[in-house]
Write a structure and sequence with these properties.
It is a single chain. By secondary structure, the protein is an all-alpha fold. The longest helix is centred in the middle third of the chain and has 35 residues, at about 260-295. About 75% of the residues lie in helices and about 0% in strands. Helix 6 (about 95-110) packs parallel to helix 12 (about 220-235) and helix 14 (about 260-295) crosses helix 17. The chain has helices at about 1-15, 20-35, 45-50, 60-70, 75-85, 95-110, 110-130, 135-145, 155-165, 165-195, 210-215, 220-235, 240-255, 260-295, 300-310, 315-330, 335-350, 355-370, 375-385, 390-415, 415-425. The chain has one domain (about 1-425). It is a multi-pass membrane protein.
Length: about 425
C-alpha cells in the first residue's frame, strides 16, 4: 500500500491535477482497493471535522494581513529602508533581500507570499545595479522560506492543529531557528561575495542621517510583530484573536502611509480568498486521505517496517530527514506536511522525541523543499517576478542556502535546545 500511495501521488501530480483533488482521489482509491468497508460514507463527517476549528480561522487573517502590507506599498518602503542599513556588507543589496524577507516573515506567515513580495520589489534593482542574477534571485527564494518558520507561521498553525500541539509554544520554538537561519543566510552571502566580489554588486554606505530617517519605515513592521506576538504571550489573545488584531494594525499602517483604498482592499480580500481556499482544500483532502490510510492499516504497516529496521532513535530521525528531503523534491510543501504528519509524528513521539522540537525540524526540511527543484514553489515565484533569464539560474543561486538549511537541520538534531530553549524558559 505504501508503494501504491507514493506512485499514485507522483503520477497524479505529474498530470497537473490540483493537489487538494489529488488527495481526495488517493483517498477514494485506497477505499476501493484496500478497505473492506466503504470509507467514503465518512466523507461528510471528515470534511466537517477537518474544517470546524477555531484555530484554522487564524489562517485567512494572517493571509489578509500580508496581502494588505504588500498591496499598500509598505513592502517597497521597508525594502528601501533596509537597503540603507545593510548594503555596506559584502554582497550589498542582496542582504536587503534577506532582511526584508525576514521582516515580512514576521507578519505574513506565508513563504510564497513573502518571496513574491520581496521579488516584486527587489528584482528591478538587480539589473540596474549590476548584481549577479543567480545569487540575487536565490537569496530572495531562500529568504522567502522564513515565512513558515518565523512566527506567525501558517504552517506551524497547521502543524499545531493536526498534532494538537500548543501553537504559542510552536511560535516560540520557531523564533531562534528562524532568526538563526536569516543570520546564516547573511553570513553565507558575505562569504560568497568576499571570495567573489563581482557577484555582490556595489557596496553602498549611506549617511547616518539617512539611515536614521529610514527607521520610520521599519518601525511599523516591528510594532506590528510585537503587537501580534506580545498579545499571545501576555495571555491577552489567542493566536486567532492576535491574527485579527494584526489585520487591524495592518489597516492602520496602510492608512497612515496613504496606501488605503477601495481597490487595495478588494484585491487583498480576493487574494486572501484564493490562498485560503487552496490551503483549506489541501487540509480537508489530506484529512480524508489520512482517515482512509489509517483505516486501511498503513500506520501499522509503516510502524512494522520501521521497527523491523532495528534503528536507534537517532537512526530513525535521520531516516525521517532523508525521507522529507526526497519527498520535498516532488510534493508541494503544505501537502507534504498534512499527508505525513498523522503518520510520522506518532512514530517520532514513540522514539522519545518532543513534538514541538520535531515540528521545527520538519519546518526546516519543508523550507528546503521550497527551494529544491523540480517542485520548489519559491523558485517559480521568483522566476515569475524576474520575467527574464532561465529557471536554472534561480536554482543554482538557491543551492548555497539549501546547504545552510541542511546544516540547521543537523544542528537541531544535535542541539534540540535551539528550538526548545524559549518554550521551556517561558513555560
Amino acid at each position: 500500500m505504501i508503494t501504491y500511495v507514493a506512485v499514485g501521488l507522483l503520477a497524479l501530480l505529474s498530470m497537473s491535477i490540483p493537489v487538494g483533488i489529488v488527495l481526495f482521489l488517493l483517498g477514494f482509491g485506497i477505499d476501493w482497493f484496500f478497505s473492506s468497508f466503504p470509507l467514503i460514507r465518512g466523507l461528510g463527517n471528515m470534511v466537517w471535522s477537518a474544517s470546524n476549528s477555531a484555530t484554522l480561522i487564524a489562517i485567512p487573517f494572517f493571509v489578509l494581513l500580508g496581502e494588505i502590507l504588500v498591496r499598500s506599498g509598505v513592502a517597497t518602503r521597508t525594502y528601501a529602508a533596509l537597503d540603507r542599513w545593510v548594503s555596506w556588507l559584502p554582497g550589498g543589496l542582496v542582504h536587503a533581500n534577506v532582511a526584508t524577507a525576514t521582516m515580512f516573515s514576521a507578519t505574513s506567515g506565508s513563504s510564497v507570499a513573502t518571496a513574491a513580495t520581496v521579488a516584486t520589489v527587489a528584482m528591478p534593482q538587480a539589473e540596474k545595479l549590476g548584481y549577479d542574477p543567480k545569487l540575487f534571485s536565490g537569496a530572495i527564494a531562500a529568504g522567502g522560506t522564513l515565512g513558515i518558520m518565523i512566527p506567525p507561521s501558517i504552517n506551524l498553525i497547521v502543524y499545531g492543529f493536526l498534532t494538537q500541539t500548543s501553537i504559542p509554544q510552536l511560535f516560540l520554538a520557531g523564533l531562534i531557528p528562524g532568526i538563526g537561519l536569516a543570520l546564516a543566510f547573511i553570513v553565507m552571502v558575505a562569504i560568497i561575495c568576499t571570495i567573489k566580489p563581482h557577484l555582490g554588486g556595489e557596496r553602498r554606505v549611506f549617511p547616518l542621517a539617512d539611515m536614521m530617517r529610514a527607521l520610520v519605515h521599519l518601525l511599523p513592521i516591528i510594532l506590528l510583530f510585537t503587537m501580534i506576538i506580545g498579545s499571545i504571550y501576555n495571555g491577552w489573545a489567542t493566536p486567532t484573536e492576535a491574527a485579527a488584531v494584526g489585520v487591524a494594525g495592518a489597516f492602520v499602517i496602510a492608512g497612515a502611509f496613504g496606501g488605503l483604498s477601495f481597490k487595495m482592499l478588494t484585491e487583498s480580500i480576493y487574494g486572501t480568498v484564493k490562498i485560503t481556499s487552496m490551503i483549506m482544500l489541501v487540509v480537508i483532502g489530506a484529512s480524508f486521505l489520512n482517515f482512509t490510510l489509517a483505516s486501511a492499516g498503513l500506520g501499522q504497516e509503516l510502524d512494522a517496517f520501521l521497527s523491523g529496521l532495528g534503528l536507534s532513535p537517532l537512526g530513525f530521525i535521520l531516516v525521517v530527514v532523508v525521507m522529507y528531503i526526497v519527498l520535498g523534491f516532488f510534493i508541494e510543501t503544505l501537502s507534504l506536511m498534512v499527508v505525513t504528519i498523522p503518520i510520522i509524528v506518532p512514530l517520532v513521539i514513540e522514539q522519545g522525541y518532543d513534538p514541538i522540537w520535531f515540528g521545527i525540524l520538519m519546518i526546516v526540511l519543508i523550507e528546503m523543499a521550497l527551494i529544491t527543484p523540480p517542485v520548489g514553489l519559491n523558485l517559480y515565484v521568483v522566476q515569475g517576478a524576474r520575467q527574464s533569464g532561465s529557471m536554472s539560474e534561480v536554482m543554482l543561486g538557491a543551492l548555497p542556502f539549501a546547504i545552510v538549511m541542511l546544516l540547521m537541520a543537523f544542528a537541531l538534531i544535535a542541539f534540540p535546545q535551539i528550538a526548545l530553549f524559549l518554550p521551556q524558559a517561558l513555560n
